[in-house]
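[Amino acid chain]
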Amino acid sequence: MPSLYLVSPSHYLADGRLVKTTRYWTSGLTMPALKALTPKGWDVTIVDELIGDVDLDKPCDVVGIGAMGPQIARAYDLADAFRRRGRKVVLGGPWVSLAPKDKSLAHADAVVVGEAESSWGRCLADLAAGRSEGVYQAREFVHLGGRTLTRPKQDPSSIGGDGSPPRAVSRETPVDVFSKIDYRDLQLIRWDKWKKSPAYRVYFHWPLMFSRGCPHPCSYCAVQAFYERSYRTRSVSLVIEDVRRIKALGGKNLLFLDDNPIADVPAAKELFSRLIPEKIKWSSQCTIEIARDPELLDLAARSGCVALSIGLESNEEPVLAGIKKRFNRPSRYAEDLAALRSKGIQVIALMMLGMDGQSASVFEDTLRFLVEHKVSLVKLFTPAPYPGTPFYDEMKKEGRILSDDWGRYDYGSLLIEPKGMTRSELREGFDHAYKNFYALRTIAHRMLPIPKYNRVEHAAYVVANLKTWAFLRKTPSAWGTIS
């Protein structure tokens, strides 16, 4: 029986240390999904290096490593180490798919580009037989069994970075790998804690998926580049079955891993309506547009939505126009955030600092805005030119990329030359904004008074704020781990 070792790598800190943790509050689905896609007859083992140790000497026929963002440096190091020991290695994930293929093929026997459903089995069979095509890429996107949005008009020269036209969505039989996932394969859940600790059961969020992709053209975003602005949903009935499988294991706090679960509004409304009787709590990423459809927002709240990570990015119209995110409309932010608060939904704001059009005043302006509108948590980002995105092409053309060390493509490293401020102003202002947002006085201002709805969830976010305040007191520049 051939054997497969699936590895989700950790990532390095600036000083070279490997990030490790003893507990994590959710878990990814990529490796369990790949296990579900693996043909029968393979013996499959999974490890997530955040919480477990990678066995470089593990006997196996093929090693599969997936990477996104700053994981890529560690992924390459692990791939090289496995190949030195005679293992066949396949690399995949968003970074591998969008970056130049020769970069990854220098460390692997094969790379899987894009969605794996139609190429994973073929790749494994080839590697087990001692051959490889090098790059394995599907010609079409998978039909997930739900709805497919009509793709918006776009410039083909921006797709895939090579001028090739966007791929179509397959019309063949739907493929829904998520319904085949065994939730016991989750690597970042501490089963001992789950059984013994009520607090752990409150904080751990069970992952599931409803959709793939996003139709918006945001130039910095790897999601729209990876999925070529396609958007597909799964069968709502199968999502509800996933919810019930999680509930059967004792889980009631769910995290939708979707990048934009409301892009197809009718499909989202159907999902939220059918979630109401399930009596669960859920969180997700989302666009601010959810606040502008009263029926959609009401259904989301009634279905158990308690928190949303929302990419506000900036409260300046020209800055958003420069990154093709005009739909955010900062003139409506006050109304939008008030609507979310009125439903008891916690907002985790994602904000970018150091973008073109921003001056050094952006740090205090952003801080004032976030505190005034009682945003529960914030994740700050410096601009990151993710390979394969229009933003990367623009920065490369202007000669403004400061680092080709992909291991530093994290949440707060200085990766492009800012225009409206110096590098030191960006570094100091970024850290200043983080520390002041999580200062005790601003926590009190943002989190009081206690809302009428979801008071237990609100209390959990107060605790999260206080933990971040304590962490920042000990860690001078903590952006790499906060986000």
Notes: The mean pLDDT is 93. Residues 455-474 form the longest helix (20 residues).
